[in-house]
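Figure 2 data, in text form.
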Amino acid sequence: MTQPPAARRVWAVVPAAGRGERFDASALARPKQYAALHGATVLEWSLRALTGEARIAGIVVALSAGDEYFATLACARDARVSTAIGGASRLESVLNGLAALEGRAAPDDWVLVHDAARPCLTAADVRALITALDGLALDGGGGGCGAVLGAPIVDTVKRAAEGVVAETVDRTGLWRALTPQAFRFAELKDALRQARLAGVAATDEAQAMERLGHRPLLVKGSASNIKVTRAEDLAAAAAILSTAEIPAMSDSKPPSVRIGQGVDVHAFGAGDHVVLGGVRIPYGQGVLAHSDGDVVIHALCDALLGALGQGDIGQHFPDSDPRYRGADSRVFLREVAARMRSAGLRLVNADITVLAEAPRIAAHRAAMAANLAADLGAAAHCINVKATTTERLGFIGRGEGLAALAAVLLEA
């Protein structure tokens, strides 16, 4: 069964294990993805549009086994960025990156594959690609095979033979394939494995998918999304980045922090379990709620939205909307986490208190913290979950319901 579009997550894999054979690195002494570019490195720029996209749940960078540079980059400390050991070819590196997503990505989650040497990717192009994927997911329920960012060829194209023009090629329908290219996790993994078994050196992911009869959607992207292949391409990339309305990586902003608090309450009703922090806990009652009634996540979402100055959970996920009937509240948390990242903020810590006479949550606190941390792109030790009773006072003391309080600290 495929997931609905709202639950389908987006991941990214960036193969960065190459040595750049066509790049003149004689004066560089390091792979081209680490060449200096407009205040940072090529790879940092290539990752910038991905780390800035709220919908991307995690990014795997496939590195060479002896890579000694990536850990020194600021992006290596992004909670959503992890690494894998790459292979001898692009295909192998992408497969290793997909292997690193096993257990995290669902079979029909989308995976964006982006070249480590395409530093001029824009946030607008990433959003356009993801929007196209959402459209595929809604079309007929099958989800489509995927989409490729590309640019129509506008120049006259010549075919050469022995250094002279052999013919003029009809450019009608010809596009330059760019990256990211996005496909469903399981289908992409299968296509790349079959290409490897067949000995096909696919130059991009779309080629491997095409072998199996898939026809990905073409999404028009910026022609400025160039690939740094030779040393002279650095100057072109620097010119593009310097004219774009974005600050250089070296530009810094003063640190800032935001705090928020949240409260949620639900009455008990018929049922045999409650959901707290995304954990199903057996109990003699359920809760009365439009969604799954997870007071922990609801309070945490309100705290995060408060810190962001973006209202409350009821504004974003109203109980009058039938889409949220019985919904998994972790979907809400992921959306709020995306808003947090889009605002340029990260979670420093969250402190959550459950108020209930029962059920007891001591045995479930670690699992709850792990769920919340995964959805927020934070380390589990940044999430503290505790519980208390009201000494049998009030509606909680009478066993009529339960509540949760949450406080968060965010940092730019």
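Caption note: The domain at 10-243 is CATH 3.90.550.10 (Spore Coat Polysaccharide Biosynthesis Protein SpsA; Chain A).
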